User: Fold this.
Amino acid sequence: MANELATNELLVVGLNHKTAPLHIREQLALAPSVKEALTKSLKQSFEKGSVVLSTCNRVEFYTLAQKDTSPRPQDIVDLLASQCQLSKDELQKHLYTHQNNEALHHLFRVASSLDSLVVGEPQILGQLKEALEDSRSIDCGGQLSTLMERAFLVARKVRSQTGISKHVVSVSSIAVKLALHIFEDLKEKTVLLIGAGEMAELAAKHLCQEGVGRLLVANRSLERAANLAESLGGSPRTLQELPTLLSQADIVISSTGAREPIIDLNMAQNAVKARKYRPLFMIDIAVPRDIAREVSELENIYVYDVDDLSQIADQNHAQRQAEAQEAERLVELELHKYHKESAQRELGPMIAAVRQQVHHLKAQEQAWAMDKLSTPADQAILKQFGDRLSNKLLHEITMGIKRFADHPQRDDMLNLVAELFALNDEHANSAQAVSTQNKPNSPS
Assistant:
């Protein structure tokens, strides 16, 4: 496997929950068809691969292109601005850009859930894999796929070799904990779960563990609602029944993929009246939001969104700081390991040339010596001796050249090897180029 960053440039442009508030992320939540169109558009400029990641807490563009033809980050900003209602100047305020080594480090951290709202949550790795598969399905993965697969490997190591996966948490579990904080006991409460996707399913499982009194599952597809409700002992409903369901529920947890709010001010006002002003607790973990902003201004309705949940997530992060620090250290080690392996692989042509030179000299000297020997037995011993000696020498020489890959004076070392073994200019120049590309904090 070649070093994808030796001759290519990795670029990441994006925003997340740290750089953009919810009302900005809502405008950039990309529908599947938009994601596909953007990915295809990116491929025209970033021919080595493009992947678009869009979740409730981040929108990121990963691209790979040849260094000498690599487009500017601004090209991605222009493309993104064309798909939203934000001006380029406003959009730029919330975006970050990472290139090459910094971009690869960011990718490793994202895959390992070190950059998530809830550090250690497992959903992001699956979302990143899904984004790559979407890109591959339209032939846009390219060489970027190799870097993504490496990130998945790093993420698996982080989860298996650190404590970051212990006491697994998620936005859904935090939402349920918040509900418990408000009501203390859910045994006599009716919970309305809106949506039947992964986030909704996780929330439902946590609710059932707390012994919720009654669970209603509403979804656009009644069949999906029925499947989820059946597995958890709940009752399926359709979204058309929402006005009635809101009057029955004490807790509402909503997580759909709707592009516009499905609970508006009028629907919420009618629900409050029908409930005779009993408190209604609502948690909106969808982006874009399922519950209209103005609903939170009504009396006796308490609405929390994903940004509100981030405060609880921060407390969780503090408790898991030791595990997170160990995971960060492992990511750094894996990043260094990747670069070292890549640099050593790029030294292959030089190592092959050295071996060819040594074997050529060995063959010459063996031929000369065999003319001096009269018996086949003596000639066989001589050949065996020459082969054993050259192989042992080449082993040490090969390991030495590989060690030069991250040596502080690697340029001088590799040039010296080229001179010692009288390598041609092609091998010498190749080795020097590889050495320059693989310096620390460079695109290597």
Observations:
- Confidence is low (pLDDT under 50) at residues 426-444.
- The longest strand covers residues 8-16.
- The chain has three domains: 8-168+322-340, 171-299, 347-437.
